Structure formats: structure tokens, C-alpha cells
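Quick one:
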Amino acid sequence: GELLASDVEQGELGNCWFLSALAALAEVRQGLFIRELFPQQDRLSPAGAYVVRLCLGGQWRGILVDDRLPCMDAGKGHKQLAYCVTHRMQLWASLIEKAYAKA
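Output:
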């Protein structure tokens, strides 16, 4: 689907610098740079596993992450993502954030 900067909203983690960069990349060339971080993956994974490519220390690495994301109590029996919140049911920003934390 379409990648929008407005999909990204900071959660409880104080990493606005990281999420601002993701939002900016989503706006460039219809999200081409974000799509390049997910090699050969343009659909939801039935297994819930994704490889996210990140440039770390000048080297590109594939980081394997799953779609299990930490949640916290939002009150009234509702849960919300503990970290990056994405609108329109988008996983891309949360998966990149998780891969960066894992790396």
C-alpha cells in the first residue's frame, strides 16, 4: 500500500529523531527508500517474519524480525502499541523500529 509520513506517530519511546527520518523517507519518491528496506517483501508475511535491511556502520545488514509488537494497557480494556504507533494498520514503521532496536 501507499506509505505516508502521517502514518508514523511516536509512542512511549523517546526516539522522535528516528521516526522523523522514517516519515521523511516515506515522502520521498512514493516511499521508494522505505520499500528498499524490505527486500522481496511487498505483502504481509503469513509466518509473521520480515527481513529489514539497515545500514549499520557503513554495511548493509538484513535483520530478521517478527510481527509481535509490545503493547501496553490503554485503559478501558484496550491495548495500544508501546512504541511507534502507525495509522491505517501499517506495520512498516514499527518493523523498522524493532529491527533498529534489535541491531
